[in-house]
Amino acid sequence: MNITTAKEFGEAVRFRRKELGYTQGYLSDFSGLSVSFISDLERGKKTIELEKAIYLANILGMDCCLVKRD
C-alpha cells in the first residue's frame, strides 16, 4: 500500500486495528499510548509524533518502509 498522507496512514491503522478486533481502549492499554493519540492518528492528524505512530503500526503487525521512487 502506498501511503502519501497522514489521513491514509491513519485509515490503514484503523482498518488493521478493527481487522484484529481491537478497540482503541484495548490498544491504549496494551501500547501505553493514550486513546486520544490513537484517535488523532486514525483521523489523520498531521501533528502526531512519528515515533509513536511507527510504534503503534508495529504493534499492529504493520511494517513502515520507505522506498525510493524510480
Keywords:
70 residues; mainly alpha; globular
Helix-strand topology string: HHHH
Radius of gyration: 12 Å
Mean pLDDT: 95
Distance between the termini: 17 Å
The coarse silhouette is globular
3D architecture notes:
- The protein is globular.
- The chain has helices spanning 6-19, 24-31, 35-42, 50-59.
- It is built from 4 helices and no strands.
- With 70 residues, it is mainly alpha-helical.
Sum this structure up briefly.
With 70 residues, the protein is mainly alpha-helical. The chain contains four helices and no strands.
SSE blueprint and pairings:
Layout: H1 6-19, H2 24-31, H3 35-42, H4 50-59
